[in-house]
UniProtKB/TrEMBL annotation:
GO molecular function, one term: DNA binding
Superkingdom as given in the UniProt entry: Bacteria
SUPFAM superfamilies to which the protein is assigned, alphabetical: DNA breaking-rejoining enzymes (SSF56349)
Name used for this protein in its record: Site-specific integrase
Family: Belongs to the 'phage' integrase family.
């Protein structure tokens, strides 16, 4: 009996952080060998009648009597779970207890299971790169759970405001163990947005009563976007580079002269190039990010670059792309090498190409097409 007290305990408490009006939700914490498992009793009761020492409500109201009945039923279920494990001669540890206790609950009641549900329901509607970002958020969330609660997973209905705030702080380095990149405020907010979306799925299925991530109100830091000046573009254009880097440089400059994003460059095919009413070449495509239709006239520098990529488009090849694009990560890595050779001190990424002020001569050339 003494050994059981040392290794196993049950405690009920009122979660004051979720108090609405004068009532708070009732929770149960089972501790096995120092590891905690929190269970939402799915019952709210007034704080006034709660006796924390006696672990029961002392009032005579119907809500308090029902709350005491809920706790008694939960104690019985906990004892029944222990008896099941003993009959199976299974080890009394947190993992075995939780699996036995949750037998019959929905299949997506844990964090990892909920993210898997998100992959099934929403994953097919997202880009592969976006799905990878959700995987990163899941890994960081489970790492936080392991660090903070010493658990390999966590019950979704036990996530509350305090959990959300601590995870947000964890992303920025709070109580973070081992190596790993610490997020900026904006980076942490991206992870919280993805967690909010996943938790909304649980809310829509009535697996949780409310989405605690909605209680996080943090303003993003304003970031000054990098941009290129005409002098810097000229340095990049004239830089002497090895063939592999020169090809990437030309694709980057094409984005500079057209403002096309990386993903839209990847998807570009000859079918996107047409002859306009001004008898010059235009680009027509739907932006992958927004779905909006875009029509752009090709300025002379862009046309010259486009002509240089004819050799990359063999006739008869299905779904042939105009540009031999590398991955975004490899592209940005090589662009830093190009910038160093060109003597450009700014942190160059492919996205920076969209922030370039066209010279007056190029603007006039474009304007003449419309008036001629």
């Amino acid at each position: 009996m003494n050994e059981k007290k040392k290794t196993f305990s049950v405690r009920f408490w009122m979660r004051r952080t979720r108090t609405q009006g004068n009532v708070s939700p009732l929770f149960c914490r089972v501790t096995i060998c120092g590891q905690r498992y929190e269970i939402n009793a799915n019952f709210c009761a007034p704080l006034k009648g709660w006796d924390a020492k006696a672990q029961r409500f002392t009032g005579r109201s119907a809500e308090e009597k029902n709350a005491n009945r809920v706790m008694n039923d939960m104690r019985i279920k906990i004892e029944d779970t222990l008896n099941k494990l003993r009959k199976k001669e299974a080890e009394i540890n947190l993992k075995n207890f939780r699996l036995a206790f949750e037998d019959g609950k929905n299949d997506y009641s844990t964090v990892s299971a909920l993210f898997e549900y998100h992959r099934i329901i929403d994953g097919k509607n997202l880009e592969p790169s976006t799905n990878l970002l959700y995987d990163v958020t899941e890994r960081l969330l489970l790492r936080f759970v392991k660090t903070r609660y010493r658990l390999s997973d966590y019950m979704v209905d036990a996530i509350d405001k305090a959990f959300v705030m601590e995870f947000y702080a964890f992303l920025q380095g709070f109580r973070r163990e081992g190596k790993g990149r610490v997020c900026t405020v904006n980076g942490a907010m991206k992870h919280m947005q993805r967690l909010k979306r996943v938790m909304n799925l649980a809310l829509q299925n009535d697996w949780i009563a409310s989405n605690p991530v909605c209680t996080l109100h943090v303003k993003r830091n304003k970031v000054e976007r990098g941009y290129l000046e005409q002098e810097e573009v000229e340095k990049i254009r004239k830089a002497v580079l090895p063939p592999s880097h020169a090809v990437l440089r030309d694709m980057f400059l094409f984005a500079v002269y057209t403002g096309i994003s990386y993903v839209d460059m990847v998807n570009m095919t000859p079918e996107n190039i047409t002859i306009g009413i001004d008898r010059t070449r235009w680009i027509h495509f739907n932006r992958q990010k927004t779905g909006l239709r875009v029509s752009l006239p090709l300025l002379p520098p862009a046309e010259e670059i486009l002509d240089g990529f004819e050799c990359y488009r063999p006739e008869g090849e299905e779904n042939r792309k105009i540009f031999p694009m590398l991955t975004n990560q490899a592209t940005n890595r090589y662009l830093k090498d190009i910038a160093r050779v060109a003597g450009v001190k700014k942190n160059i990424t492919f996205h920076v190409a969209r922030h370039y002020e066209l010279s007056l001569s190029l603007k006039l050339n474009s304007l003449q097409r419309f008036v001629s």
